[in-house]
Structures are given as structure tokens and as C-alpha cells.
Amino acid sequence: MAFTLKNLSSLVTVAIQHKASDIHIRTNETPCLRISGDLVPVQTKTFNSTDLHDIVKILTADQPGGPRADLVKEELDGAITIPDLCRIRYNIFSYFGQIGIVLRIINTRIPNLAELDMPKTLGKIALQKRGMILVTGATGSGKSTTLSAMIDHINENRASHIITIEDPIEYMYEQKKSRISQREVGRDTEDFNSGLRAALRQDPDVISIGEMRDQVTANTALKAAETGHVVFSTLHTTNTVTTIGRLISMYPAHEQPEVRKRLAENLHAIIGQRMLAGKNGKVVIAQEIMVTSAGIRDCISGKDDLNRIPSIISQGQGKSTNGGQTFDQHIMFLYQKGFIDKEVALDAVSSQADFIQKLIVE
């Protein structure tokens, strides 16, 4: 019997009921759900090769060129909407001649910043009218959700033209105060850089790039920020210092002094995210928030050491002119508010000794 969209909807429904973030489907195995960071098998039948081919057809039905039924020999990304349920982002890949599929569950409705328990400073950052704003973190740390919430915050508060360049499109925005043009790589534009260059001719106020992948994209994004636009993007980096270092290292050595200067002038904020195990099986997001100040500009430009940035951020916590916070400061907050256990906090902070000392002092 063929595997149908109804069967897929049932599997996704089970995942949603168990608050899973992802579904792993592999040939001749039972599916697994990613729940609170762990893979948990679903008590159902083993999916055979025919089932996997049927699922590939369902997922790729709306792809340019029509549905794919062959055994894919390369990774294939995309997203589809399951009516009255959710959107799912998929990656289809092959391993030892067999098919593997990972589905990421995306809520149909975009959560707002308050619902995500995000600091109020993120709303202020989102409404910045020029400069580059980056959301960073490991895969699965919630970057896309945070970025989408910030874009929708603009949508609710400003009459702007927002252009997104995504691979694939995940959240679908409603037109509110802004006009939003969502463009998908491979469908609406050839690649991120082509879409970004075209966006500069489409009278944008806000440009959102799904991911900053290479020097060419980074350079065009910098140019957009320099010409008075606000540019959002994501990077797979662990903190502010590594993010800035990654951007600089995209360029050859002889260009790096100039790139440092450009970044110092145009990088407005970096929001870094980590997932922590919260109490009662919940997942908690810890954030590092850097809002560029004069001292941070000196570090980026090379006048001071990049590694001083966390110290500068920590000194600005709670100040209306900054509003930044380090990971350690936010982890302390999450522990004191009872969202995470002491063991989780100690494992996550950069210095256990400093963390324990602050507990004693306070």
C-alpha cells in the first residue's frame, strides 16, 4: 500500500503532540523523533524503500521540474505546508545507496518575541533602520525562529518593504504594516548572492538573508548595510568573537584590515543562541546579545583585542544605551529564575569558578 500525504500528516501530528523538533526517517528503520535533544523511536512499522520513495514524491511535488521519485544522489532541501497542521522543512539525502530524510517542524504561526521569552532589547534591535544584524548558533538552536520573530516585529511596527532570500522558505509571513517579498533560492533566484544583488534594485528597507555562507554574500550584505539598509542574516558560529572572526576570515589577509573597518562601522548587533536542558524536559534558549558600542568598534577594527568583547558586553548589561548580555550573565539569570538546574548552568558557563563566586557574593 502506498505511503500517502495522510500517512505523513499522521506522523507529523504525533511529532507535534510530543513536542518534537525534528523527524528522522531512514530506509528499513522505524522513524525517530527529536525530543528535548534526544532521538526517540516511534512505535510504528519499519519504513521500507518504497515508503521512502513515496515520501520523496510527496515532499518534492511542488519542486521546479515536478516530484522526484528516484534515489537521490545529492542532498535536496525544501519546505512544504501540510494543510491545517504546520510547515515542514526537509532534507533528503542518500547513504550507502539508501534514502534518509530529516523533517524540521515549523509552526504555521510565527511566535512573537514575547512568546519566545526574548529580552525586550531584541525588539529595539529589530527596529534598527540600518546596519547588519546577525543571529548565530549551532544547528537546531532556534536561529530561524528568532530571526522570523524579529522580521515579523518589523512587519507589525513599520511600513517597510522587507525582502527575504531563503533556502528554503520556512515561515510564511502575513502582510501587516509592511510589504514582504519572500524569495526562495532555486525557485525565485539562482542563489543567495544573485537574490541579494537584485534586492538592492527592489527598493528595500529590510533585507533578510537565510545564511551568510561565503565572502561574496558577506561582501554584498556589507554593501547593502553601507548604503543605508538593515540586513539580517544567520551564521553557524558559537559566540560573538567567533562570529566576527569568521566574517573576517572569509577575506584574504590583505583585505582584512579594510573589512575590519567596514564591519566596525556597519555591524549593529549579534545575537548568539544555545539550547540548554530546562526543567521538566523543556528546552531553554540562552542568548548572548552584543550591540555595537565605541569600545566594541575598537575591538572589531583591530585597535583593541577581539577577546575583550565579552568583558565590554558584560559591563553594558541593563544599560538603556546598550542592553547587551553575555552567555554567562543570561545563564545565571536562567538559573536564578529556576528555568535550569545548577548542573546545567555549571556545564554551560565559560568559567565555573566565576559562576560559583557570583552565587556566593549574591
TrEMBL record:
Domain of life: Bacteria
Boundaries of every Bacterial type II secretion system protein E domain copy: 6-277
Residue runs in coiled coils: none
Pfam families associated with the record: T2SSE
PANTHER family documented for this protein: TWITCHING MOTILITY PROTEIN PILT, TYPE IV PILUS ATPASE PILU
Family as reported in the entry's similarity comment: Belongs to the GSP E family.
NCBIfam families associated with the record: pilT_fam (TIGR01420)
Name of the protein described by the UniProt record: PilT/PilU family type 4a pilus ATPase
Lineage: Bacteria, Pseudomonadati, Bdellovibrionota, Bacteriovoracia, Bacteriovoracales
